[in-house]
Amino acid sequence: MSSITNKSISEIILDNYHAIEVFKKYGINYSTKAETALSIACIELGLDIDSIIDEINNVSFQITISKKLLLKTWKLSFLIDYIKYIHHQYVTIMMPELENSAALFYELNKNKYPFFEKILSCIHNINLLMVINNRHEDEILFPYILQIEKLYEKEEEYGQLFVRTLRKPLNILEKGNLAINELINEVETLTDNYTCSKKASLAMKVLYKQMKEMQDIFTQQKYLENAILFPKAMEIENIVLKEKYNN
Questions:
Q1: Residue 235 needs a FRET pair 20 to 30 A away by CA distance; which of 14, 119, 168, 216 works?
Q2: What span, in angstroms and rounded, lies between the C-alpha atoms of 202 and 200?
Q3: Would you say 125 and 237 are in contact if contact means Cβ atoms under 8 Å apart?
Q4: Residue 120 to residues 48, 108, 131, 137, 214: CA-CA distances in angstroms?
Q5: What is the CA 42 to chain-centroid distance, rounded?
Q6: Residues 207 and 105: beta-carbon distance below 8 Å
Q7: What's the rounded Cα separation, in Å, for the pair 134 and 141?
Q8: Which of 16-30, 122-136, 144-158 has the highest mean pLDDT?
Q9: 3-class DSSP state for residue 37?
C-alpha cells in the first residue's frame, strides 16, 4: 500500500501542494481535516483510497534536468517546444493561481502579515512581465530561431528573415528577465528564503511552496535559454548570415 496512506492531509499537501486539487474534487476538507490521516478521511467519505492516491500521484510531477543529458545536442526546435510546453504553460496556468492564492491570503491575514501586501504586488508584476516576455518569445524570437535553423539545415530557401539579428530581441528579453529577477529576489527576501515558522498555517506553508516553485521554474528557463538555446542560435545565425551575403 502507498506510503501516503497513513500520512495526514497536511503532510501530503506539504509534500505536493497540487494534491489540494484532488481534495477539492472529492470534498475532502483540508482545513478542518488537516491532521486526519488520508485513510481515515477516505473511509469517512466512502472514497476509494487507491483511486485518490493515484490521482494525487498523477496531479503533479517535478521536472528536473540531469547534468548528464547532452542538452547542447538538442535541436533548437525541440528545445523551443520544451520551453513552450513546460515553462510558458506554467506562466499561463500556474501564475494566475499563485496570484489568486496570494491575494486571498493577504485579504484574510493583512493585519497579521502586513508585509504580504508587498509580496502580492511583486507576484502581480512578475506575472505581467512573464506574460510579456513569453509573448515576445512566441511572436518574435522563437519564429526567427526556427527560421534560421531551417536555413542552416537547408530545409528552407533564403528569403526575408523575421528580424535582422538576434541582438535587439535578446536585449529586450534580457531587460524583462532582469526586472523579473529583481522582483523574485525581493520576494525571496520578504519570505526569508521561503521559510515560515512551524506554527504557520497550512495555507501560508503552501503559498511559500508555490512561490519557491515560481522561482525554480524561472531559473530553469533562464538556464535553458541563456546557456544553451540563445548561444547556439547565435552561432547558427552567424553561419547563415555569412552564407547569405557571400552568395
A1: 216
A2: 7
A3: no
A4: 38, 13, 17, 26, 14
A5: 31
A6: yes
A7: 10
A8: 122-136
A9: strand
User: pLDDT for 208-228, tens place per residue?
Assistant: 999 999 999 999 999 899 989
Band (134; pLDDT cuts 50, 70, 90)? very high
pTM for this predicted structure:
0.81
**Cα Rg for the chain, rounded, in angstroms?**
22
What is the structure's pLDDT at 10? Answer: 86
Residues 41, 28: contact at Cβ < 8 Å? yes
Q: Return the pLDDT at 67.
A: 57
Q: In the structure grid, which three cell numbers stand for residue 31, read together? A: 482545513
Give the Cα separation of 55 and 2 in Å (integer). Answer: 12
d(CA 165, CA 244): 13
Output DSSP code: residue 229: I
Give the span between the Cα atoms of 144 and 167, in whole angstroms: 12
